[in-house]
Specification:
This protein has a domain at 1-34. It contains 4 helices and no strands. It has helices spanning 7-32, 39-63, 66-82, 85-102.
Length: 103
């Protein structure tokens, strides 16, 4: 199946991706409604979240440009220093923007 990259085709793709995202989100909540959250399940969920995050970050660190590496390092340092994700992400974005602007 092929969808052309016309304005209507792009809109169809956005709607399809939105539906798939909503179905997986609601499906996950529905499936987890049958699971008793024990300490073991909670630790599994926490470990899974970390592993997904690492699976996204490691390829970026290995194959990314200088801006990606600057964002990664700045975000990590800020997160370790203040332990608040939103300011850390903001610092990472600014670091990437500065490196790409000046480089």
């Amino acid at each position: 199946m092929t969808i052309e990259t016309t304005p209507v085709g792009v809109l169809i793709l956005i709607v399809l991706m939105t539906l798939v995202t909503l179905i997986t989100r609601f499906g996950g909540v529905f499936a987890m409604s049958f699971v008793k959250i024990s300490p073991r399940v909670e630790s599994f969920i926490n470990a899974m979240a970390s592993s997904v995050l690492i699976a996204i970050i490691v390829p970026m660190a290995v194959a990314g440009d200088a801006g990606a590496l600057a964002a990664l390092v700045a975000t990590a340092i800020t997160m370790l220093a203040i332990r608040k994700p939103l300011p850390a992400i903001s610092v990472g974005l600014v670091a990437a923007a500065l490196v790409r602007y000046l480089g």
